[in-house]
Specification:
This protein is α/β, with parallel strands linked by helices and 311 residues long. It has two domains: 13-147, Rossmann fold (3-Layer(aba) Sandwich); 155-240 and 274-293, no CATH class. Helix content is 33%, strand content 25%. It is built from eleven helices and twelve strands. It has helices spanning 13-31, 49-57, 70-79, 112-117, 124-136, 171-174, 184-194, 217-226, 233-236, 246-255, 269-276, and strands at 39-43, 62-67, 86-90, 103-109, 137-147, 155-160, 203-207, 210-216, 259-266, 280-286, 289-293, 299-305. The strands form two sheets. The protein has a seven-stranded mixed sheet, sandwiched between helices. A five-stranded antiparallel sheet has the order 7-8-6-10-11. Helix 2 links the parallel strand 1 (39-43) and strand 2. The chain is elongated, with a radius of gyration of 21 Å.
C-alpha cells in the first residue's frame, strides 16, 4: 500500500477524529505504567493526541508517531507542533524499519487489526511486524498492544432486538436502507451481507418461542464490535476487529522471542451499557436448555518484553 493512500475510502474523517479523541484518555490509562522512557514509537498515531500525552509525560524521551494516512499525519503534526521531542513520520509500518536495538517502547493501539483488515486479511502481516519490532527494541524494551480480541471459534446462540428500528430482513430491501435506521436484528442481516466484502451464512432458530441465530462466536463478536458505527458503516463492515484470540496473541509474541509481561482483557462498561444491553443476548444451548452467557471482552492489553542481556 502506498503511504499516500488512505487505509480506506473514508467519507467523513471527522467521525474518526471524534472517535479517536474520545477514547485517548482510556488508552493512556491502559498503557501509561508500562512505557519505558527513551525512544518511544506510537504506531498508527492517528490524531496525535496519544502521542502528545506521551511526549508531555516523558519530556526527556524521543517520541515518534507514525501513520500511513496523509490526513492523520498532517493532523498529528499540527497537534504536536509545540513539542520539541516529537517527530511525526508518514510511512507504512509493514515496510518501515528502525535501526536494531534503538527503541525502548513500541505502542500498537488499535493497529494490529488494521494491519490485517487492509492487507488482504492476512494474519502473517502483524506477525511479521511483531518480529521486526523485536529486532528494533533494546534489550529490556517493550511492545505494547491494545486492540480487539477474538473469543475463538465455537457455536453460540444470540438474540437480537427487533423493535429498536426498521426490522427489514429481506436482503434486497435491507441493503437499500440507511444502516442507522435498522433494528439490531436487521443490522445483523446487513452485517452478514457486507462483512469483509462478501456474504456470510447464518441460521435462525426458534427455542422456547424465542427467535435466535446460531453462529460462530468470532463472527458474533465482529458484529458486536462494530454495529454502532453507523456513520461510515460501509467502511467499518470491511474491518475485522478481533484478529487473534488470547492464546494466538501469546503464541505470536513468544514465537518472536518476546517474554510476556502481562496479558489482560476487559469489557468496556460504556460499550456494554450502550451497545449490548437490551439489544442482544448471548446463549449456549445445552441439554435442551438455553444458558445465558456473559458478553465477550471488548479489548485486550498485552505487554511483552525483549529479554535483557545477561552477563
Amino acid at each position: 500500500m502506498n503511504p499516500k493512500h488512505e487505509l480506506a475510502e473514508r467519507p467523513d474523517f471527522n467521525v474518526y477524529v471524534s472517535g479517536m479523541n474520545a477514547t485517548v484518555r482510556m488508552k493512556w490509562n491502559d498503557i501509561e505504567k508500562y512505557i519505558i522512557p527513551g525512544k518511544i514509537v506510537d504506531v498508527g498515531c492517528g490524531t496525535g493526541e496519544l502521542t502528545k500525552i506521551i511526549a508531555k509525560k516523558f519530556l526527556d524521551s524521543q517520541v515518534i508517531g507514525i501513520d500511513i494516512s496523509d490526513y492523520f499525519v498532517q493532523l498529528s503534526r499540527k497537534n504536536t507542533k509545540d513539542l520539541g521531542n516529537v517527530e511525526i513520520q508518514q510511512c507504512d509500518i509493514v515496510f518501515k524499519e528502525f535501526e536494531p536495538e534503538t527503541i525502548t517502547t513500541k505502542i500498537f493501539s488499535s493497529v494490529i487489526h488494521e494491519l490485517v483488515s487492509y492487507k488482504g486479511y492476512n494474519k502473517e502481516i502483524p506477525k511479521k511486524v511483531i518480529r521486526g519490532s523485536f529486532r528494533e527494541l533494546k534489550p529490556g524494551g517493550r511492545i505494547i498492544i491494545r486492540d480487539g480480541v477474538s473469543p475463538g471459534d465455537y457455536e453460540i446462540y444470540i438474540w437480537f432486538n427487533d423493535k429498536n428500528g426498521i426490522n427489514e430482513l429481506d436482503h434486497k430491501k435491507n441493503i437499500k436502507l440507511n444502516f442507522k435506521d435498522l433494528s439490531t436484528e436487521a443490522r445483523f442481516i446487513r452485517f452478514c451481507l457486507q462483512f469483509k466484502g462478501k456474504e456470510w451464512d447464518y441460521r435462525p432458530v426458534r427455542i422456547n418461542n424465542k427467535k435466535l441465530y446460531v453462529l460462530d462466536a468470532h463472527f458474533a463478536h465482529e458484529f458486536m464490535s462494530k454495529k454502532e458505527y453507523v456513520e461510515n458503516w460501509d467502511v467499518e463492515a470491511l474491518e475485522e476487529f478481533g484478529i487473534f484470540t488470547i492464546e494466538e496473541y501469546k503464541q505470536t509474541l513468544e514465537n518472536a522471542d518476546f517474554d510476556i509481561v502481562e496479558i489482560k482483557t476487559y469489557k468496556n462498561p460504556w460499550i456494554v451499557k450502550n451497545w449490548y444491553e437490551n439489544k442482544l443476548k448471548l446463549y449456549r444451548y445445552e441439554n435442551n436448555k438455553l444458558n445465558e452467557l456473559d458478553y465477550f471482552p471488548t479489548n485486550i492489553i498485552i505487554i511483552a518484553e525483549k529479554p535483557k542481556e545477561t552477563n
